[in-house]
Amino acid sequence: MALLETRGLTAFYGDFQALFGVDVVVDEGEIIAIIGANGAGKTTLLRSLSGVLANEADAIRFDGAAIGSLPAPDVMARGIAMVPEGRKLFPSLSVQENLQIGTYGRKADGPWSLESVHALFPILKERRNNPSTALSGGQQQMVAIGRALMSNPRVLLCDELSLGLAPVTIRDIYAVMPRLRASGAAIVLVEQDIEQALKVADRVYCMMEGRITLSGTPAELSRDAIHDAYFGVA
Amino acid sequence: MQWIDTILQGLLLGGLYALFATGLSLVFGIMRLVNLAHGDLIVLAAYLILILVSALGIDPFTAALIAAPVMFAVGWALQYVVLNRTLGDDILPPLLVTFGLSIVIQNALLEGFSADSRKIPAGALETQSIALGGINVGVMPVLTFVSAIAVIVALNQLFYRTALGRAFRATSDDPVTAGLMGIRAERLFAKATGIAMVVVTIAALYLGTRANFDPTIGPARLIYAFEAVIIGGLGSFWGTLIGGIIIGVSQAVGAAINPEWQILAGHIAFLIVLLVRPRGLFPRTVG
Predict the structure, then answer these.
(1) How many CA atoms lie within 13 A of B170 on its CB side?
(2) Does the predicted interface ipTM exceed a cut of 0.95?
């Protein structure tokens, strides 16, 4: 049985329909990449999975339970943590407080704690008393990832990790993916940076205009097929 | 010497205004809600203490200890059942609803307690004083001021040393992302208003033992509280204390020059601060 699964997931912003029947499966310990152009529905999919957008209860199943209609705090308490697009650190909180607040709604035993997050990103220990706004973009992304890990999630949702970061910083961030996977969490990466996504993912879903247009392992998918699924066939 | 006395009395009065204002500041800082019924809730708490004192024959401090959890529950329920529904992008609904609540509380108190002025009896404490050099200061005003500082220290500890405080600040920054951290904003807001009502109870204790009150005096307390919050800068507790002191000292000095100027002097001080520093003296989102 899949750990996390959507069946015919639809999503709306008022009258505007953003998702048209999306089926995605995430198994235990997998890294899934969801790629697609701007406006393809990737972020809407993550907002649905994390409970920010409410859906039909049965459209999203996690660990055998229908969770589609649960609000974000309940979804988080069950073990789905989110690294939101644009980091969204809390400016009133220090770096360490930003990490600590990750455990507010879920205190689960597991590999991740303040110590192990500090071991993963040593710079965060050094700058723990700084306001989160004083960090560079890459360091802020580390805080956002660490904050989500603190709850020892079973699924980690990452929205556009590479957004606004220098290539060398993106490589540093993606370099920790194997260690995150080894800790046991399944990971869902939403990315526009296809190179990075294909390098670390076990399976890839390509989205266009609110639908899944292509899926498979990175090895199975040719550049041309991804190109067509990404931009539509001319 | 007479001027030092005047300023000292004004400073102690500022402690009372700071107590009025801190709950308002707390609620605004966390959820951007301006509670126009804040003054009436202070008066409500004063009547609650009065009932406990006269019915059980206990002293007002013990009565306030009993009233505090009751007011916490009132605040929690008010926020959870009513005020949470008014929060959103539009700032008008919370203003309308709390304005209506203010009228409801005033009329309910009028119905229940009549328009007579009442006072919470505090026994010998009312008239006791301490000699500081050549100046005598009342024990109750000193207690009021010390309580205001204690409340602000306690709230700062809560905000900066506890997981609940982190959640308050995070939700104030960004409620959607706070939800992703498992923070249920509606329950958090209810706790915040509950805590504000505990502060309101402390304010009511000193309001009711210091001077007469009747069901209609709430809105004027709201004005003083509002001015203290704005002078201090929205969301800063220590700024709120400074704001309260500025109004208290201005009123005392104004009254010393001409008794008719007491209230006016406080408002003028507020307007001057607003002209010079439109965002208040210590602007800050929360804390």
Answers:
(1) 33
(2) no
DSSP B81: I
From A217-226, B193-202, B223-232, B249-258, the region with the lowest mean pLDDT: A217-226
CATH number among 3.40.1360.10, 3.40.50.300, 3.20.20.140, 3.30.565.10, domain A4-87+154-231: 3.40.50.300
State how far the Cα of B52 lies from the Cα of B58, in Å rounded to an integer: 7
A100 touches chain B (CB under 8 A): yes
Q: B24-47 pLDDT, tens per residue?
A: 999 998 998 999 999 999 999 999
Out of B174, B179, B285, name the one closest to residue A73 (CB): B179
Q: How far apart are CA B176 and CA A147, in angstroms?
A: 15
pLDDT digit string (tens) for A75-89? 999 999 999 999 999
Query: Are A93 and B170 an interchain contact pair (Cβ–Cβ within 8 Å)?
Result: yes
User: What's the token pair of residue A218?
Assistant: 């990175």
Rounded to the nearest 5 percent, the helix, strand and coil shares of chain A are: 35, 25, 35
At residue B104, does pLDDT exceed 50? yes
Mean pLDDT computed over B61-86: 97
Chain B residues whose CB is inside 8 A of the A50 CB are: 180
Q: What residue ranges define each of the domains in chain B, with the CATH number in brackets? A: 2-114+136-276 (1.10.3470)
Tell me which residue has tokens 């009547």: B47
Which residues from chain A sit within 8 angstroms of residue B170, using beta carbons? 90, 92-93, 101
Q: How far is CA B173 from the centre of its chain?
A: 23
How far apart CA A178 and CA B92 sit, in angstroms, is 50
CA distance B112 to chain A (A): 42
Strands (E) located in B18-158:
129-132, 135-138
Query: What is the pTM assigned to this prediction?
Result: 0.91
Rounded to 5 degrees, what are φ and ψ at B220? -65, -40
